[in-house]
Design goal:
Blueprint lengths: L3 E5 L2 E4 L12 E6 L2 E6 L5 E4 L3 H13 L1 H12 L10
Antiparallel strand pairs: 1-2, 2-3, 3-4, 4-5
């Protein structure tokens, strides 16, 4: 399951966990039109996938602005607990 934790400017931000396969690096999944990318937290680096340059900069700025909330959600996700929404 991949809960949506935020949406802004046509970008959907999700964070999820896979049972039995914990991720080691905090990250989010971003979707914009036909592009999908995984961004590291807190550096905002694209770990995999593609995203247009303009949306990449928007997502990186959003990550920097919401770093504490994202890391709090990451801890919840790793404990398989419900995540909270993050506003733009």
């Amino acid at each position: 399951m991949s809960p949506t934790i935020s949406m802004f400017c046509g970008i959907i931000i999700r964070m999820f966990w896979e049972k039995g396969e914990p991720h080691h690096l905090p990250h989010i999944h971003a979707e914009y039109q036909n592009d999908n990318a995984v961004f590291g937290i807190p550096d905002g680096e694209i770990l995999t996938g593609t995203m247009p340059k303009r949306q990449t900069k928007m997502i990186q700025g959003w990550i920097a602005e919401h770093e504490e909330e994202l890391l709090a959600n990451w801890k919840l996700a790793m404990n398989n607990e419900p995540l909270f929404k993050i506003q733009k």
